[in-house]
Specification:
With 304 residues, the chain is of the alpha/beta class. Helix content is 38%, strand content 8%.
Length: 304
């Protein structure tokens, strides 16, 4: 009961329908067992380990500015420099917002396929949460997809099976897509994070920073025509802004030259069924944008 209430409060704040007291730490809305574990872990780290300057690996200035020997100066910018092999993430995304940088169409992927990209960081352990995962949750769907759906992070079912959106929320996502004529195999589905945060807590900034390079490489390979971000975390990460979900919905945004629509996370819809109509309007808009950009209709016949 308490967990359900905490999730409802977080949903309302994410959407902007509930104003929490100024200065209230959102971590207080996490389940209490996680807060205790995290507090004890931090206290132990402070007393037994020297301070660490930065969790995120940063390449040297030379690595950031040196041109690739195999490409002429006029070639499209690479997604990542071929340096720092000890760090799978490297410094593909410069410090700052994932939204900042050249358009997706100008990025040259550093891997030939999504399968090669997945294999390149299958053993990534940059973040501490990787040590507790059962499976890396890379992404699933059509490698030629024109519509890409991006969530925030894997849950327990996804961690167990290794694919995104496979639990109850995933089943609802399949129904949402079917309502606009798309099957899961028509689109590509992935998350901001590739590992499950403990107890399904919100991703931390350093985890988002470490995983963002892999997401950008995925998108550089996919070259989608439209992006659909589900949930506040996915929306604000792609836009590089701190806004509620309500503030991001009902607008057509741009992510590196690609139209972006932000809607509810299916898990939030399970807890708040009255939001489904708004989600329907959002995915309809995403479909309209895709078709207007010359995209293919889905393989399913939408219900009348």
């Amino acid at each position: 009961m308490r967990r359900a209430l905490l999730e409802w409060v977080r949903d309302q704040q994410d959407f902007g329908e509930l104003d929490l007291p100024a200065g209230l730490d959102r971590r207080l809305l996490q389940p209490p067992d996680l807060r205790r574990i995290k507090s004890l872990s931090q206290a132990s780290a402070q007393t037994s380990a020297p301070p660490v300057a930065s969790i995120r690996p940063v390449a040297s200035p030379e690595a950031k500015t040196a041109p690739r020997a195999s490409s002429p100066a006029s070639a499209r910018p690479a997604v990542t420099p071929q340096t720092a092999p000890a760090s799978p993430a490297g410094d593909i995304v410069p410090p700052g917002s994932l939204a900042d940088g050249p358009p997706l169409r100008e990025l040259t992927p550093t891997h030939a396929s999504l399968d090669e990209l997945r294999a390149s960081f299958a053993d990534c352990r940059i973040c501490g949460i990787a040590n507790a995962r059962q499976n890396l949750v890379f992404g699933v769907g059509n490698p030629g997809a024109e519509l890409v759906i991006i969530g925030e992070a894997p849950g327990a079912d996804e961690d167990r099976l290794g694919d995104p959106f496979v639990g109850a929320a995933g089943q609802l996502l399949d129904k949402i897509l079917a309502a606009i004529g798309y099957d899961r195999t028509d689109v590509y589905i992935c998350n901001i994070l590739k590992c499950r945060p403990p107890n399904n807590r919100d991703p931390q900034p350093e985890e988002v920073a470490n995983c963002s390079p892999f997401l950008l490489q995925q998108l550089a390979l996919l070259q989608p025509k439209v992006l659909l971000a589900v949930g506040r975390i996915a929306g604000k990460t792609l836009l590089g802004v701190e806004r509620t979900l309500g503030e991001m919905r009902k607008q057509i945004h741009q992510f590196r030259g690609v139209p972006l629509v932000v809607t509810y996370h299916p898990a939030a819809l399970l807890r708040n069924p009255h939001w489904k109509r708004g989600c329907w309007e959002d995915v309809q808009k995403a479909r309209e944008l895709l078709l207007a950009a010359g995209g293919r209709p889905g393989s399913l016949t939408p219900p009348a």
